[in-house]
Structure formats: structure tokens, C-alpha cells
């Protein structure tokens, strides 16, 4: 498979966190997404509206796909749902709450994308250490489609968001 190069952010703070991320990585090819490589995994402090919850395990994946932005989003949401994820607008949804699996489309291709369901680059791609640290591990020269350096974005962030290397990359292939 060839296609557009992209990057996904994975996170989990329920159950066996690493097993959740590995399961998602293994599911992506079944949905038309080739996983090229994985970052290391990072133990990260919760951020957002719900801080009293277990730490997350995060990783980023470099991918290739022909699905396009909305098709890739649909594939990620289907994988999340299969792991019991309650999505925004559904009963029981808690913004920034605990979850077995979270998959975010961070970047795809060389152009920005705007739709009511998805904005690329992801709105938090340049403002969260738990996204930037594993993303830059995959490609330190990464830039947004507008040309902004992600390494420069990371350098501008405060150091108070806890991001600690937890383990090796997820298994790809």
C-alpha cells in the first residue's frame, strides 16, 4: 500500500494500557491503514477537564493510507468503538475522561484539512507535550502544512506537563 503519509496519536488509561495501544496498532491494517513505525511509549499525566484519573500511556504512529482524512477518521473511530469508547454526543461521554483507547489523526499529507468533523493538523498537535514528544521521536524535522516546526512548538511549551518514556515502540507489521 502506498498513499498519503500521516501520523496518529494513541492513548489509553484503562486496563492494560500497552495491550490496548498494541491492539489498535494491529487493527489499523484491517481498516486500510499501513503502520510504518511506532514511537516509544510514554507515561503521561492527565490533562484537560478531568485530572483525577490514572496516567495515560501514549505513543504516535507513522502511517500511510489512501483513505483520505475523513475515511481515516472513520477507521480510527471504528477501532475506538470496538474497544468500548463512548464518543462525543453519546450517553456516558465524559470530555477528557478515562478511556481504554483514544486515536487522534494528527497530520495527513501536505495540506491542511478543515471539516466540521476533523481539522488537520489536529488542534492540539502543537500544544501538547504528550503529542509532540513521541511525534518528534518519529521525525524531528516534522512541520505543519503551513510550515511551522513542531520542534519549535515543543520548545515553547512549559515543562510542567509530565511526559516520561515508559517503554519500547509498539510492534509494527
Protein architecture, described:
- By secondary structure, this protein is of the alpha+beta class.
- A hairpin with a 2-residue loop joins strand 6 (113-115) and strand 7 (118-120).
- It is globular and about 35 Å long.
- The longest helix is centred in the middle third of the chain and has 15 residues, at 68-82.
- The protein has a single domain, classed as 7,8-Dihydro-6-hydroxymethylpterin-pyrophosphokinase HPPK (Alpha-Beta Plaits), CATH 3.30.70.560.
- Strands 1, 2, 3, 4, 5 and 8 form a six-stranded antiparallel β-sheet that branches.
- It has helices at residues 17-27, 68-82, 129-138, 150-156; strands at 4-12, 33-38, 41-44, 56-65, 102-108, 113-115, 118-120, 163-167.
- Helix 3 (129-138) runs antiparallel to helix 4.
- The two termini are 13 Å apart.
- The model has no long low-confidence stretch (mean pLDDT 93).
- 25% of the residues lie in helices and 27% in strands.
- The protein contains four helices and eight strands, in the order βαβββαβββααβ.
Amino acid at each position: 500500500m502506498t498513499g498519503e503519509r500521516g501520523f496518529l496519536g494513541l492513548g489509553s488509561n484503562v486496563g492494560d494500557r500497552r495491550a490496548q495501544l498494541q491492539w489498535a496498532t494491529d487493527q489499523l491494517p484491517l481498516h486500510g491503514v499501513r503502520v510504518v513505525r511506532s514511537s516509544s511509549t510514554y507515561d503521561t499525566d492527565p490533562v484537560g477537564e478531568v485530572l483525577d484519573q490514572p496516567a495515560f500511556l501514549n505513543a504516535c504512529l507513522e502511517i500511510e493510507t489512501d483513505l483520505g482524512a475523513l475515511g481515516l477518521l472513520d477507521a480510527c473511530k471504528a477501532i475506538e468503538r470496538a474497544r468500548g469508547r463512548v464518543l462525543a454526543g453519546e450517553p456516558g461521554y465524559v470530555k477528557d475522561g478515562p478511556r481504554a483507547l483514544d486515536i487522534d489523526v494528527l497530520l495527513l499529507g501536505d495540506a491542511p484539512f478543515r471539516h466540521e468533523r476533523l481539522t488537520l493538523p489536529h488542534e492540539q498537535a502543537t500544544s501538547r507535550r504528550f503529542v509532540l514528544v513521541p511525534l518528534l521521536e518519529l521525525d524531528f524535522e516534522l512541520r505543519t502544512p503551513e510550515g511551522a516546526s513542531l520542534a519549535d512548538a515543543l520548545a515553547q511549551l512549559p515543562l510542567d506537563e509530565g511526559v516520561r518514556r515508559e517503554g519500547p515502540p509498539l510492534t509494527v507489521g
